[in-house]
């Protein structure tokens, strides 16, 4: 019931999860030594998942390149992809409930549009080609919603991701990765916030991670500044 209240935005958090979440995040942060995966590395992860079933690889790509939550990926329909503007509209989330599938507005009830980045275009072309606008964009091998638990169990996520060099990478970290890519590309923070559907840029800042690309860019700028000063 408390989880349902969170989804309906009646309460901010489930208090029963707070203590366990704090322990989990503390341990995860200590264990994670891997940087935020690059777009090429996420594509590599997606290929590994697609070897089990194509839908799992597609889910990884959609989660990262749309910077979307798992339930939001499940809520997408073909008509949400606008090829004229090259935008994807995220206006609902879909997840299994006690009485079947539950469809609700996104968290915070913020409908948003996300630009289609080139690496994602082939996936979206394949998923939308000659399909009715009201059909779900993506479903699992048996026609069901892909939840984060389903992706974990079907792919052996923890072991697979460790073997690829990203120990501790969570499914939700794909959304963080996408946010970081947008920010590192120089997209203004308020635009990144809109892409993520956040009400506050401060929430967005917590999603962004300094990765190797950002550090290398910082070094290049500092070296250039030092040469100019010399």
Write a brief caption for the model.
With 230 residues, the chain is mainly alpha-helical. It is built from 12 helices and 5 strands.
Protein architecture, described:
The chain has helices spanning 2-7, 15-31, 39-50, 54-65, 70-75, 121-128, 148-155, 157-163, 173-184, 189-196, 201-207, 212-229; strands at 81-82, 87-90, 93-97, 100-104, 112-115. It has 230 residues and is mostly helical. It has 2 domains: 1-31, no CATH class; 37-229, hpI Integrase, Chain A (Orthogonal Bundle). It has a 3-stranded antiparallel β-sheet. Strands 3-4 form a two-stranded antiparallel ribbon. It is globular and about 65 Å long. Residues 4-12 and 19-33 have low confidence and may be disordered.
Question: Topology, pairings included?
Answer:
Elements: H1 2-7, H2 15-31, H3 39-50, H4 54-65, H5 70-75, E1 81-82, E2 87-90, E3 93-97, E4 100-104, E5 112-115, H6 121-128, H7 148-155, H8 157-163, H9 173-184, H10 189-196, H11 201-207, H12 212-229
Antiparallel strand pairs: 1-2, 2-5, 3-4
């Amino acid at each position: 019931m408390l989880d349902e209240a969170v989804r309906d935005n009646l309460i901010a958090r489930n208090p029963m999860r707070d203590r366990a979440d704090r322990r989990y995040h503390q341990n995860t942060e200590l264990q994670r030594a891997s940087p935020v995966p690059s777009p090429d590395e996420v594509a590599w992860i997606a290929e590994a998942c697609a070897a089990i079933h194509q839908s799992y690889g597609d889910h990884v790509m959609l989660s990262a390149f749309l910077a979307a939550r798992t339930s939001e990926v499940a809520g997408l329909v073909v008509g949400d992809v606008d090829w004229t503007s090259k935008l994807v509209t995220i206006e609902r989330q879909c997840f299994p409930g006690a009485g079947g599938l539950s469809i609700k507005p996104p968290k915070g009830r913020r409908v948003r549009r996300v630009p289609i980045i080139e690496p994602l275009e082939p996936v979206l072309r394949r998923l939308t080609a000659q399909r009715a606008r009201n059909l779900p964009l993506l479903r699992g091998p048996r026609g069901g919603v892909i939840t984060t638990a389903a992706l974990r169990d079907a792919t052996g996520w923890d072991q697979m991701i460790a073997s690829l060099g990203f120990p501790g990478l969570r499914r939700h970290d794909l959304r963080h990765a996408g946010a970081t890519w947008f920010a590192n590309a120089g997209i203004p923070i308020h635009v990144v916030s809109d892409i993520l559907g956040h009400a506050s840029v401060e929430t967005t800042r917590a999603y962004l991670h300094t990765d190797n690309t950002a550090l290398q860019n910082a070094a290049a700028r500092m070296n250039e500044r030092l040469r100019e000063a010399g």
